[in-house]
Structure formats: C-alpha cells, structure tokens
Design goal:
Layout (H helix, E strand, L loop, with lengths): L1 H30 L16 H8 L5 E6 L6 H15 L3 E5 L6 H7 L6 E6 L2 E5 L4 H13 L4 E6 L15 H9 L3 E6 L12 E5 L7 H12 L3 E5 L9 H7 L1 E3 L3 E4 L12 E4 L15 E4 L4 E3 L6 E7 L4 E4 L21 E9 L7 E7 L15 H12 L22 H33 L1
Parallel strand pairs: 1-2, 5-6, 5-7, 7-8, 8-17
Antiparallel strand pairs: 1-3, 3-4, 9-13, 10-15, 11-12, 14-16, 16-17
Helix pairs in contact: 7-8
Length: 448
C-alpha cells in the first residue's frame, strides 16, 4: 500500500509540475513576447524600409476598416495590421460594418468591402488594396503631406511634369505624388527670385536658352543652399554655362557610347546600360539595371566648391562620341573625345551657405530621357529617379520602399518542363488509371 501511495504521489507531483510549467510558460509569453520569422524570404515580417516609414510617424495612427462582420476578411485584415502594430504599438484598428448604415457609407465614398482609411494628424488616406507597399506608401503620404515639394521649371521647352507625351515626365511626377510629395511648376520669367519653399528644383532638359537674368536666379538659388535636380542633354548648354561653373562641373562634348550594352541585348551603342553603381546613399542596396539613352558625361573642375560622387559610370569600353552615331564608330584619340569610364550622373554635396548651415545637395544627370514616359519603365529607371529625389529631400531613410517578396512566390518553368508536366498528367496518369482498371476487371473475371 505504501508503494502504491508513493507512486500515486509521484504521478500527482509530476502532473502538478507539468501544469505549473505550462502556466508559467504562458505567463512568460504574455509578459515577455518573443517571435521568430521562419517564413521564406522573411515575408511575415515588415521590411526595413517599411519600418523606417513607421519611424517617420511621431503620433498615433488609426486604421478604420469598412469590412462586413461575416466571412474571414476581418481576420485577414487584423492579422495584416498586427504586423505593423508590433513595430508601432500606437496603431489602432477599428472595424465598421458597411451594412449597418449604407447611407453613411455612400456619404464617405465607401464602395468596396474591406476598404481601409488611415487617419494620422488630422489627415486621411484611403486604401482598396491590402499590401505592404500600398500600406507603407499611404503612411508615407500622411507623414509627408504638405511638407515636401518638388518644383519643375517651365518656360523653355522643359519636360513637363503633367505631360503624357513620350518625352515628358508625367509618370515620374505621378510616382513622386504617390509618395506624398507636392508637385509644382515655376516659370522664372515671371519671378524675380526662386521662392524659398520651392523644395527640390527640377531643371529638365530645356530646349531654348535661358536668359542671363534667369540663370542668375538659378545661381542665387544654389548660393542660398537650395537643392537642384538637373537633367542635361548632349549638346549646347542652353545659356547655363554659369550654372555649370557654380557647381564646379564641366559637360564633355558629344554623347557617351558604350559597347558593353551589346552583351545585355542593347543594340544601340548610345543607350548605356548601368549594372553597377559607385557607393553612395542613393545607390546603396540598389542592384537594378538602369538604361540611359543618349547621355552626356561630366568632368569636375579643380576649383569646385562641391564634393562630387559619381552615381552612374560607363565601362572602360565607352567614350564620348562627337560624330554621328551611325555605321562603324570608334574612339578617336586625336579628337576632343574622352575614353571611359565616364561619369554620367553626379551627386554634389557641401555645407550649405544658407541659414542653418545644413548640408546642400545637388544631382546632375546627363540624360533626361531615362525618366521620360517612354523609358521610365525600363529596369530600375523609376526607382533610381525616386531615390535621387528622396536623397535631395534629405529623406535618407526613405530612399526606397520595397515589398517583402519571398523567393518561392513564383515558379518559372522551361518549355521542356511544361511539356513533361503535360505528358504526365494528360497521358501517363490517365494511361495508368486505365491499366489499373483493366487489371482489376481481368482479375475479377478470373476469380469468377
């Protein structure tokens, strides 16, 4: 009896210890939560860029989801928002059933089950798609709204920020607006001075010459510490020689041709493909190929006040062609042509001469076509342009927002693999089933 009693108490003690361990583990998990993302590509966690966007929001964010109570949509939305709440706990989620008050939903413009409103600092953004990129961009627009400006110069045939022609920058300006940047236009002929709140000034490939007075306004903008994004083109300086001198750079004659592009399928040697980038905050972590059609190259003056860092450099098989780009072309060492590698885009920095003594930033690119409506979709052109603007706006932590993508989200099959899969499912599997049925019938007949 004593032995059985001891065994009983041992089992009871072990059971009590097991229960206490479970209760303790549950209490510790609530008090000290710990999680690890074992998903492929870390797709269950927020990207570093998305976390940086949350860091730009100093106050609470309210997420209002107009999702019906029935179904699983609310659960999916709650799980999605929870990923953001783990990084920023003051994000709140509230559900509103659109069927409870249809009139109020119509007044709010809610037309889709699950539509989301993001509210921050008295401003609001609407979402109809639930993805990390869309959510992060909406938050970025809320953080930036009214605070960041990009001003496009007009009056001399520059590429238009609101145009839809092939040469215009409408799609690029729309991408900036989607990130919460205010887009404005400015004609220097109607001004005596560039406004202090112009933000980043964009000078995009003028077709006619600037007057001395207009060039003086641009130099004054630089001397006041203003940011500039300048797209030049091979050819004349369009009255902007003094601006080149103020920035401490020289545009080389001719246009860059690069034989390396042939290996990437680029048939026109004046289309320069950029696959590697010098180290800079704009290009950090950027590995997409950019295409610069018919670009100029730059050299730096020894007396430059700005520190210059190349952003795009051609290969050793390139040069500045001053003649016609037709037929057989080759580098002419006895002419004004320069051999590669050549700098086709420069990031300029210095301590700002303006009030506050902050860093002044300028980007000069020898080609404006790469961000035009026609070419912005090539490779990483759009992303590179947005990165340039974010750097000029001093938003270094928000230079790019990428969606977390797992490497197993897509499956690419060769034609041979597709043929084998079709042969297996359309021919071999039905044949095996037919053979199995025939064997079963034959055995039953033999047994009968």
């Amino acid at each position: 009896m004593r032995a059985s009693a001891r065994a009983f108490f041992k089992r009871a003690l072990l059971l009590a210890l097991g229960i206490a361990t479970l209760i303790g583990a549950a209490w510790l998990s609530e008090r000290y939560p710990w999680r690890v993302d074992l998903s492929s590509g870390q797709r269950a966690s927020l990207s570093v860029q998305a976390q940086a966007v949350l860091g730009a929001l100093s106050g609470p964010v309210e997420v209002v989801s107009y999702a019906r109570d029935a179904g699983s949509l609310r659960g999916s939305i709650a799980a999605f928002v929870a990923r953001w709440q783990r990084v920023k706990p003051d994000i709140t989620l509230r559900f509103v059933d659109p069927d409870a008050d249809p009139a109020a939903m119509r007044a709010l413009g809610v037309t889709l089950d699950g539509e989301i409103a993001l509210n921050y600092a008295g401003r609001s953004q609407r979402l109809t798609q639930l993805s990390e990129r869309e959510f992060a961009q909406a938050l970025l627009r809320l953080a930036r709204e009214g605070a960041q400006r990009v001003t496009f110069l007009t009056g001399h045939g520059e590429r238009r920020s609101d145009g839809d022609a092939n040469a215009d920058l409408g799609r690029f300006a729309a991408a900036l607006a989607a990130d919460g940047i205010a887009i404005e236009s400015l004609n220097l002929a109607a001004q005596t001075q560039v406004p202090d709140n112009a933000g980043v000034l964009v000078l995009a490939s003028p077709e006619t010459d600037y007057t001395d007075a207009e060039t003086a306004q641009l130099i004054d903008w630089i001397e006041r510490g203003g940011a500039l994004l300048w797209f030049t083109e091979p050819g004349p300086a369009r009255g902007l020689e003094a601006l080149f001198r103020a920035l401490g750079i020289v545009q080389l004659a001719g246009q860059v041709v690069d034989a390396t592009g042939q290996g990437l399928g680029v048939g026109d040697p004046s289309f320069v493909a950029i696959t590697r980038y010098p180290e800079h905050r704009i290009s950090r972590g950027f590995d997409l190929t950019a295409l610069l059609p018919q670009t100029a190259a730059f050299a730096r003056r020894p007396d430059a006040a700005f520190a210059a860092t190349p952003l795009a450099t051609s290969s050793t098989r390139s040069w500045t062609e001053t003649g016609s780009i037709s037929g057989d072309i080759a580098f002419d060492a006895d002419s004004a042509e320069f051999p590669g590698p050549l700098d086709m885009a420069l990031a300029l920095e210095r301590l700002s001469p303006g009030p506050g003594r902050e860093q002044q930033r300028v980007v000069v690119v020898g080609d404006g076509d790469f961000l035009s409506n026609r070419f912005i979709g090539n490779g990483g052109n759009r992303t590179l342009g947005v990165r340039m603007v974010n750097w000029l706006l001093a938003d270094d932590d928000l230079i790019d927002i990428d969606t977390v993508a797992a490497p197993d989200q897509s499956l690419e099959l060769t034609p041979r693999s597709l043929g084998l899969i079709g042969l297996w499912w359309l021919v071999l599997v039905p044949a095996l089933l037919a053979l199995t049925g025939a064997i079963v019938v034959w055995r039953r007949r033999r047994q009968g």
